[in-house]
């Protein structure tokens, strides 16, 4: 199915073959799963225990072409995003609005900033200005390592790129400025534990 952005540009999804990923020997807890799968399972875990209510945001699309191969089936062949996407997930945790983007990369040495869009950075800035909690979860799939990167360091890296600096965030930057997550069985990624550490460190700095 062809999906286009509001400006007419054709959306080209990142090549992220789940079947190939399933062949990689990750830990028992996340073998064959995408980062989105793991976060969705974690969110279910949080909600069942009353810890937080966080969901994947639905993406509104405008369908423009549908084919009917049979009377009981309809296949969408072309559609447009009605609006530019913001971030992947949002919800409430302990009275705090939580809003974050989740990305994974096969790159072992850096995270390409082309995986983030300017309107997403703007959205995260506005959420922060409203006292919401926003961050980036990154999975380095080839290394099986996960990080919660706070908004501020992400914004600094983005601003540096806009000024002509490097177009990626070095892996060492994550080790220095992000909070590493240890994958498990259930929940697959207890990212709120990393967020708790992030908030604790920020309160010490203030």
UniProtKB/TrEMBL annotation:
Residues 1-21 are annotated as: Disordered. It is found in: Cytoplasm. InterPro entries: Resolv_RecU (IPR004612), Restrct_endonuc-II-like (IPR011335), tRNA_endonuc-like_dom_sf (IPR011856). The keyword Ubl conjugation does not apply. One of its GO terms (biological process) is chromosome segregation. Binds 1 Mg(2+) ion per subunit. This is Holliday junction resolvase RecU. It comes from Paenisporosarcina quisquiliarum. The lineage of its organism: Bacteria, Bacillati, Bacillota, Bacilli, Bacillales.
């Amino acid at each position: 199915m062809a999906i286009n952005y509001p400006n007419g540009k054709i959306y080209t999804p990142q090549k992220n073959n789940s079947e190939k990923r399933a062949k990689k020997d990750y830990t028992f807890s996340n073998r064959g799963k995408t980062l989105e799968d793991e976060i969705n399972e974690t969110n279910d875990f949080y909600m069942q225990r009353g810890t937080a209510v966080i969901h994947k945001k639905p993406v509104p699309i405008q369908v423009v072409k549908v084919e009917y191969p049979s009377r009981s089936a309809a296949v969408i062949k072309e559609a447009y995003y009605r609006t530019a996407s913001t971030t992947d997930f949002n919800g409430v945790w302990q009275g705090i609005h939580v809003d974050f983007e989740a990305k994974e990369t096969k790159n072992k040495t850096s995270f390409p900033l082309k995986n983030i869009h300017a309107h997403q950075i703007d959205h995260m800035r506005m959420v922060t200005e409203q006292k919401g909690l926003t961050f980036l979860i990154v999975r380095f799939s080839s290394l099986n390592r996960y990080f919660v990167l706070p908004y501020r360091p992400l914004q600094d890296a983005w601003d540096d790129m806009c000024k002509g600096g490097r177009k990626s965030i070095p892996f060492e930057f994550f080790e220095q400025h992000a909070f590493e997550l240890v994958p498990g069985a259930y929940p697959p990624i207890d990212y709120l534990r990393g967020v708790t550490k992030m908030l604790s460190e920020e309160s010490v700095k203030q």
